[in-house]
Write a structure and sequence with these properties.
The complex is a heterodimer. Chain A is 38% helix and 20% strand. By secondary structure, chain A is α/β, with parallel strands linked by helices. Chain B has eight helices and 14 strands. Chain B has a five-stranded antiparallel β-sheet. The chains are: A alpha/beta, B alpha+beta. At the A-B interface, α12 of A face α2 and β4 of B. Chain A: This is ABC transporter substrate-binding protein.
């Protein structure tokens, strides 16, 4: 039956991987709670274990009859895991586009409770996807490299700065390799949608020999050591969490607009424990949107934007629009244009 | 006396029933129309958005370097997300070969130049799909590109469910209101009928005037028939009254002649058994003549009450005069007549009739009283009403017969050998009712107490 909702290409992959023991790669695994518990809630997620463990522990403390098997994988592997038919209860991911596609293609089931009403409308898609974090996509700079220069406040400022000081920044700009990183691809496509200045910026960055990275953490570390002067489109929450590097980095939210990424959670259609999964969703939502701070909640809390249009911080909108850049043709076209601009 | 009408059905119930039924049918039709309209509108809305999406994709399809290029616009899919939270699927074909999208979407059929729509099962639910085609020329070869965009129908169904709920509520509201109006309309429509029935049944027993109040057109034939029926009844009644009066009059004169002859005969006859027979004859003659007189009185009373002329009448003076006239009769049997008057009771009425009524009552009292007893009259006012009370010591009315003593020709069981026709109290009652008063009979002490009540003038 599932074949019916999976595009042709994926069917090929699916049949290929179905025979394998694991059709997907995982980066880490953690069991929280009593191994002899009645219910084992299986969660596959893109969020690092150290960041998430306190929140998991709080859930298990409140629901001792439930133990959690927490599996960490990259967003693409989360997608594969779900499509492979391995039975997880919940998929938590920062890749809003992939989550949307999972839900659109029928891999998730709806859920509603008193807690889900706390989520603002733009953070809830079809009662299938629930946002549980708002994270700004930022510019991270090395204060040392900017000595004597004004910190750019907008993309226009940044373009001007890079043009005026080509020598200082040549080879010292970092950003995602969007052909590898799902998050980087999402940020780039949303950037391109938000403003034409993205392409101008890309061309300027391409001229200066920008370096490409797979992950946020690597970029932040390189900025902290001063190897690169700045990293563009980096998750602010990750940078802020690296208190050990606080001496060498500075997080800049650009004022023309700052994209906000939402981590989303969904109960999977074939979830073995949908009730427990619902409890976990409630737990997540209360921590993210409920009144009062929880010390185990690992992400910054922002007041929900009231007038989203005028606000500088723009949450990426959940919805079928996100499917557009997942289209094979569209992706190929975007990547090629991006490579042209970045001279890669 | 009055027989209950034979009832078959009720106009009110039938009217209400038909109106309520009509409202229910109307409400149901209204709800169905609203839901149907909403369904069409919702479907048209979804179709036009789907087609807009298809068109926006088609517009980006070009031929570049001998290859078909598609630049899926962000808005093509995001606009679908703006109207509902439905799942979205799309497919782009070139000459039937998949370029991109969901390959297993259902067959669009022949979309035609304007584009086409199908509703089909897909992805374990139902989708609505819009499809349009365009011909592109690739290196001189025409290639048909087909773009389909589909959406699940959950939002549509939710909208419809909501419209149905609202429509249902409106329908129920409409029905309740209409039913309420039906009841009110029926009530007010039938009011003239009720009013007429009330007016006719409130009438006094002698009231045979035609119905004069205005009635609605539909009731005019009924009232006309009723009036003509009343006319015939009145005519026939007056004919029989006339006949009785005429008969009484004609009988009285010969009776008087026969009585005179009988008295002359009595003086001549010596033998006691013959004298007794003649005395018995005279007594019977007296009774007949008195009955004839009362029948005449009654006819007179009937006539005068039909054409009642009211003037001021002083009850005490009227009573005094009557007592003066009756005193010789009373004195014959040593019966004392006394009047006692308080206040100054004046009533509006026909003095002749009132005198006649009082005379009948006094006659009765004197007739039934034993020799050497008293008949006392009291005239006064009580609670705004004027009254004349006549009391005797003749043993009173038979118990249990009080209520029918004023019916025509009813006589007490104790009437025995007393001369009478049984019309006296009837006459008195009819006179008082014609004046808007009443006659009350009761037993007090060792005698009867008859009171003539007149309304406040």
């Amino acid at each position: 039956m599932r074949h019916a909702v999976v595009p042709g290409l994926v069917i090929a992959f699916w049949t290929l991987f179905a025979s394998a023991l694991h059709a997907y790669e995982i980066e880490g695994e953690l069991r929280v709670g009593d191994a002899a518990a009645d219910t084992h809630l299986r969660i596959i997620s893109t969020t690092d274990i150290d960041l998430f463990e306190p929140l998991l522990a709080a859930f298990v403390a409140a629901n001792p009859e439930i133990a959690i098997d927490y599996v960490v994988a990259s967003s693409a592997e989360v997608m594969k895991a779900v499509q492979s038919g391995d039975r997880f209860d919940l998929a938590l991911s920062s890749a809003m586009d992939l989550q949307t596609k999972l839900s659109n293609d029928g891999y998730t089931q709806p859920y509603s409770s008193a807690a889900t009403d706390l989520v603002p409308d733009w953070g809830n898609w079809r009662d299938h996807l629930f946002a549980f974090s708002q994270e700004t996509v930022t510019l991270v700079i090395s204060p040392a490299a900017f000595e004597g220069l004004e910190i750019p406040q907008t993309r226009q400022d940044l373009i001007r700065l890079l043009r005026d000081h080509e020598d200082r920044f040549r080879g010292r700009i970092g950003t995602y390799d969007i052909s590898q990183s799902g998050a980087g691809y999402l940020f780039a496509t949303q950037d391109a949608r938000a403003s034409e200045s993205y392409w101008r910026l890309s061309e300027v960055m391409g001229n200066l020999g920008t370096r490409f990275f797979c992950c946020t953490s690597e970029m932040i570390e390189k900025v902290a050591t001063g190897e690169i002067a700045m990293a563009y489109n980096v998750l602010g929450s990750y940078a802020a969490a690296r208190t050990d590097l606080a001496y060498g980095i500075r997080i800049v939210e650009l004022q023309d607009y700052t994209i906000m990424m939402l981590r989303t959670a969904a109960i999977l259609r074939d979830a073995p424990n949908p009730e427990a999964a619902g409890l976990f969703i409630d737990h997540l939502i209360r921590a993210a949107w409920g009144a009062g701070e929880r010390d185990y909640y690992p992400f910054p809390r922002f007041p929900a934007p009231e007038g989203a249009v005028s606000a500088t911080r723009r949450p990426i909108r959940l919805g079928p629009g996100l499917l557009v850049y997942l289209d094979g043709l569209k992706r190929r076209a975007f990547l090629s244009e991006w490579r042209d601009a970045m001279r890669w | 006396m009055s027989r209950a009408a034979q009832v078959s059905g009720s106009i009110r119930r039938r009217l209400i029933g038909q109106l309520v039924l009509g409202s229910a049918v109307l409400a149901a039709v209204l709800v169905l129309l609203v839901i149907n309209l909403a369904r069409n509108v919702a479907q048209d809305t979804q179709d036009s958005i789907l087609m807009a999406s298809v068109t926006s994709i088609l517009d980006t399809m070009t031929v570049r370097d001998g290859e078909i290029s598609v630049d899926l616009p962000y808005a093509a899919l995001s606009m679908l997300g703006n109207v509902s939270e439905d799942r979205v699927f799309y497919r782009i074909l070139a000459d039937g070969q998949l370029l991109t999208g969901y390959d297993d979407l259902p067959d669009p059929g022949a979309p035609g130049r304007e584009g086409g729509y199908v509703t089909a099962p897909y992805a374990e639910t139902e989708i609505r799909m819009a499809t349009a085609e365009r011909r592109l020329s690739v290196g001189g070869t025409p290639i048909m590109v087909t773009v389909s965009v589909a959406q699940t129908r959950q939002g549509l169904m939710q909208t419809l469910a909501q419209v149905s709920r609202v429509g249902g509520a409106v329908g129920v509201g409409f029905f309740v209101l209409a039913a309420l109006l039906a009841v009110l309309t029926t009530q007010s429509g039938l009011r003239p009928l009720r009013d007429l029935a009330g007016a006719v049944s409130r009438r006094g027993p002698k009231d045979l005037r035609p119905v004069k109040g205005p009635v609605p057109q539909e009731m005019a034939p009924l009232v006309t028939s009723l009036n003509s029926f009343i006319d015939r009844l009145r005519y026939s009644l007056s004919r029989s009254e006339d006949f009785i009066a005429e008969a009484a009059h004609r009988v009285r004169t010969p009776l008087f002649t026969v009585r005179t002859q009988a008295e002359i005969a009595l003086r001549r006859v010596e033998r006691p058994e013959n004298r007794a027979a003649i005395k018995e004859m005279i007594r019977a003659l007296d009774e007949s003549s008195r009955a004839a007189g009362q029948l005449l009185d009654h006819a007179m009373v009937t006539f005068r009450t039909d054409h009642l002329e009211k003037e001021k009448v002083r009850l005490d003076e009227l009573a005094e005069e009557l007592v003066d006239r009756l005193r010789p009769v009373a004195d014959l049997r040593d019966i004392g007549l006394s009047t006692q008057s308080a206040g100054n009771p004046v009533v509006q009425g026909d003095a002749v009739l009132i005198e006649n009524a009082l005379r009948n009552v006094l006659d009765n009292a004197i007739k039934y009283s034993a020799t050497d007893s008293d008949v006392a009259m009291r005239i006064g006012q009580q609670g705004g009403q004027s009254f004349i009370e006549v009391r005797d010591h003749a043993g009173g009315f038979p118990e249990g017969a009080l209520h029918r003593m004023t019916e025509r020709f009813a006589r007490g069981d104790n009437a025995g050998g007393t001369v009478g026709s049984g019309l006296g109290l009837t006459i008195a009652r009819e006179v008082l009712e014609a004046h808007g008063g009443r006659l009350t009979l009761e037993n007090k002490g060792d005698g009867a107490c008859v009171t003539l009540w007149f309304p406040a003038s």
